[in-house]
Design goal:
It is built from 14 helices and 12 strands. The chain folds into 2 domains: 7-45 and 290-384, Aspartate Aminotransferase, domain 1; 48-286, Type I PLP-dependent aspartate aminotransferase-like (Major domain) (Aspartate Aminotransferase, domain 2), CATH 3.40.640. With 388 residues, the protein is an alpha/beta fold. The strands form 3 sheets. It has a 7-stranded mixed beta sheet with strand order 2-8-7-6-5-3-4, with helices on both faces. The chain has a 3-stranded antiparallel beta sheet with strand order 9-12-11. A two-stranded parallel sheet has the order 1-10. The longest helix is centred in the last third of the chain and has 23 residues, at 290-312. α8 (185-198) links the parallel β5 and β6. Bound molecules: pyridoxal-5'-phosphate. Pyridoxal-5'-phosphate is lined by residues 40, 101-103, 127, 173, 177, 205, 207, 237, 239-240, 245, 250.
């Protein structure tokens, strides 16, 4: 039998990434000593106190049944407390919904709000999931370029009025993957006014809010700003903050009716987050945050090693203020894909081509700070031997 795939699924073939993965596997087979700066997945284990909490929770039989619904009240309260402490934002329990990782909620959100033909405003380069949900709901993506000359912020004023009339949803993501940009207060104020005026729901993805490098310049939450809760929600995740990518837990919070729409979709698709994982997440959010401070210090050392190393080799790269990515301009005369291929073939280094995350990423590569300082120094030493 010939299997016929859904037309929308066919639109999603990540050609470039498949090619990179194939090349990576070939290099490993050849015995190359690969330094992987490609995928944004923390290399360190989940902190011990969180694992211990999970071990205890998993033994209790009340946690073995379907969790159902928006998450444990205790989990949603822990999220609310964390928001109050970190951002001085007030949330009630019905303004929070647990997610099976924020990717799950980001990808499913469209099902609650997008009808065929509705426009979704999506930053590019960006996290591919904003568009995935758009395609599956037969929405129309409108890509907002994130350009260096605009500090990698979308130019909301440049969106044509016929697009705005059909737009229902806008995604934003700061600290940003892949550009590592942080949004200033003025941007959030402009965004809130824009969304209110055009009746567009804001979905802010704050997965990297805790990976920052300067205590005096902590990234903001979209929900900190006046009027935000009237028009939008924020997605958050334990993945990057607590090295918990494999655990699959996050949340969405903010506007009660938007949260309810997402929760209703989820009620019909999944049966909630394993309660033992929710309990471990409560431990993560409510106990000492020293593990997060330590992670920040570690990423900072890695960031400095990579950025200083690249700058010495005359690469044009800015020192990121947040996220664990370094967004580097490629050497002149090369495309993103050519540089990725050259780094792999001649230095056994994996990185992500900027254009793989959107066409405005052409001319950049993204390095993830997910290997230790000695390996980063080794990567720099290898890059220094490449002839351009
Ligand atoms: C990693 C990441 C997420 C978080 O994914 P989880 O599903 O919570 O693990 C969300 N948004 C962006 C931009 C990311 O890079």
């Amino acid at each position: 039998m010939k299997i016929c795939y859904n037309e929308k699924l066919k639109k999603l073939s990540p050609y470039l990434f498949i090619e990179i993965d194939k090349k990576k596997k070939e290099a490993i087979e050849r015995g190359a000593d690969i330094i992987s700066l490609g995928v944004g997945d923390p290399d360190l284990p989940t902190p011990k106190h969180i694992i211990k909490s999970m071990q205890e929770a998993v033994t209790r039989s009340e946690n073995h049944q379907y969790p159902f619904g928006a998450g444990l009240l205790s989990y949603r309260k822990a999220v609310a407390e964390w928001y109050k402490k970190r951002f001085n934002v007030d949330l009630s329990a019905d303004e929070v919904c647990a997610l099976i990782g924020s990717k799950e909620g980001i990808g499913h959100m469209h099902l609650g709000f997008i009808n065929p033909g509705d426009v979704v405003l999506i930053p590019e380069p960006g996290y591919p999931v904003y568009n995935t949900g758009t395609i599956f709901t037969e929405g129309v993506p409108y890509f907002m370029p994130l350009l260096e000359k605009n500090d990698f912020l979308p130019d909301l004023g440049a969106i044509p009025s016929d697009i705005l009339k059909k737009a229902k949803l806008i995604f934003i993501n700061y600290p940003n993957n892949p550009t590592a940009a942080v949004a200033p207060k003025e941007f959030y104020l402009e965004l809130i006014e824009f969304a209110k005026k055009n009746n567009i729901i804001v979905a802010a993805d704050a997965a990297y809010s805790e990976i920052y490098y300067d205590e005096n310049e902590k990234p903001s939450s979209f929900l900190e700003f006046f009027g935000a809760k009237e028009i939008g929600v924020e997605f958050h995740s334990l993945s990057k903050t607590y090295n918990m990518t494999g655990w699959r837990i996050g949340w969405v919070c903010g506007n009660k009716d938007v949260v309810a729409g997402i929760a209703k979709v989820k009620d019909n698709y999944d049966s909630g987050v394993f309660q033992a994982v929710q309990e471990a997440a409560i431990t993560a959010l409510t106990s000492s945050q020293k593990c997060v401070e330590d992670a920040r210090k570690m990423y900072k050392e890695r960031r400095d090693a990579l950025v200083e190393g690249l700058q010495k080799l005359d690469w044009k790269v800015n020192l990121p203020k947040a996220s664990f990515y370094v967004w580097a301009k490629v050497p002149e005369g090369y495309t993103s894909s050519q540089v990725v291929a050259k780094l792999l073939d001649e230095a056994a280094i994996i990185c992500t081509p900027g254009n793989g995350m959107g066409k405005s990423g052409e001319g950049y590569v993204r390095f993830a700070l997910t290997v230790n300082v000695p390996r980063i120094k080794e990567a720099i030493a290898r890059i220094s031997k490449i002839k351009w």
